[in-house]
Amino acid sequence: MGSSGFSPVLSSTLITLLLVCSTSYGAPTHHPNKRIHIHHRVSSHNYKEALTKSILFFEGQRSGKLPRTQRMKWRGNSGLSDGSAANVNLVGGYYDAGDNVKFGFPMAFTTTMLSWSVIEFGGMMKGELPHAKQAIRWATDYLLKATAKPDTIYVQVGDANRDHACWERPEDMDTTRTVYKIDRNTPGSEVAGETAAALAAASMVFRKSNPSYSKLLLSRAMRVFHFADTYRGSYSSGGLRNVVCPFYCSFSGYQDELLWAAGWLHKATKLPSYLSYVKSNARNLGADEYDNIFGWDNKHAGARILLSRSFLLSKISDFEDFKDHSDNFVCSIIPGVPSYSSQYTPGGLLFKLKEYNLQYVTSTSFLLLTYAKYLALSGKSVECGGSVIRAGKLRSIAKRQVDYLLGENPLNMSYMVGYGKKYPQRIHHRGSSLPSVRVHPSRIPCSSGFQMMYSQSPNPNVLVGAVVGGPDQGDRFPDQRNDYDHSEPATYINAPLVGTLAYLAHIFGQI
């Protein structure tokens, strides 16, 4: 892995880029005394195209009645009676990956990360900003339905075991659409905390464009957080254990979600009560300060970087520890420094876990760019055992990871479907792998689809923008539909990538 992370180019010129500072959705603000010097080079990738496609992917994951503006035309209406089993309206939202279940925990994290992408880099998205906001609203409209009853959150629609026993299009679903909830007697602080974070973050996205909707999201976030904190408990160790495990068990506990949610509520409200909550609970809700995983389950690294902003830019001295812990996270990723503890594949891909590894690549890359923004605005750097690491280094590492994902790897394979000349053809995704309802309007029964699942035929419907789980530790990718660890896409893989691609498209003058 090269130190700069940039591809070979024909020429380069030194440019000065004025930093942007987030407003309600990341609109550019000039800071004449805060300039970043970047070697502006011609990129071998079209980040603008990748950004467009990364957002389009979410339309392929929609559940419910599709709008006239739907661009992923091979999809149709689905799940129109969701919630009826519990006499509630739970139509809408997203299928998390390649199946037809609506899991509330990863959906909420997806929403938080899409919102954070817009908050930090929305001003760089230009024409893609409305699409990004639509992707967020498709989720928040559903989360508002799921949290309509006080001290109750509907956290899942569909029996995952029965759903996974079928290979059928969402438009044909005939599996049990059982509704599962958390409440005072069956708590789930991790999913409730993440839902509060999602609603709070999204409220900032809509603050200027739709103030009334923003206020609704924020008031709901506050109520949901109170429920999460008052009735503490893990949803994967209580009454829902057999429902959510092994699919979305929480291994990191719920403490990280409470800290994460409080951080977002402080950012969204500026109320002293949330500041006090973070200050008084930081140690109790914290984990090992060297924890360097960030994803739908473990929020510690993300919470620390989010909260470090309060120290770096708002000068809240009580939050200095979050800057130190964020530095530890960064130092664990940079090869050659004393506290480096991460693994990379021979081709240079950050490798965290063998299942769905690209989710950690996209989430880590986003954190690096966001932290680089905070560092540059504050004139600070990171010290890793005597080595001074500046914002530019973090950006170059993030760019290198995105470039690998888009095709600069030993297989010359783009892991974003529909981007580049070579990308996965047999992704683990029911709707993509079966003939669409437009081509084959008659129903495909539950078990009939398995013939296609185990075939070597390419998927007939291109799920444009989907990022799959990715290659293994040796940069190998078999492109087999039944290899879900590597071939299945997920909303939470794409969500942080949206912000990262917006930054890169802007910095290379593509948008």
From TrEMBL:
GO MF term list: cellulase activity
GO BP term (any one): cellulose catabolic process
EC class: hydrolase
Domain of life per record: Eukaryota
Annotated signal sequence range: 1-26
Annotated ranges, domain Glycoside hydrolase family: 47-501
Pfam families, A to Z: Glyco_hydro_9 (PF00759)
Entry-linked Gene3D superfamilies: 1.50.10.10
Reaction catalysed by this enzyme: Endohydrolysis of (1->4)-beta-D-glucosidic linkages in cellulose, lichenin and cereal beta-D-glucans
Keyword annotations from UniProtKB, A to Z: Carbohydrate metabolism, Cellulose degradation, Glycosidase, Hydrolase, Polysaccharide degradation, Signal
Family matches, as InterPro entries: 6-hairpin_glycosidase_sf, 6hp_glycosidase-like_sf, Glyco_hydro_9, Glyco_hydro_9_Asp/Glu_AS, Glyco_hydro_9_His_AS
Active site per database record: 428, 479, 488
E.C. number: 3.2.1.4
Stated family: Belongs to the glycosyl hydrolase 9 (cellulase E) family.
PANTHER family: ENDO-1,4-BETA-GLUCANASE
Record-given protein name: Endoglucanase
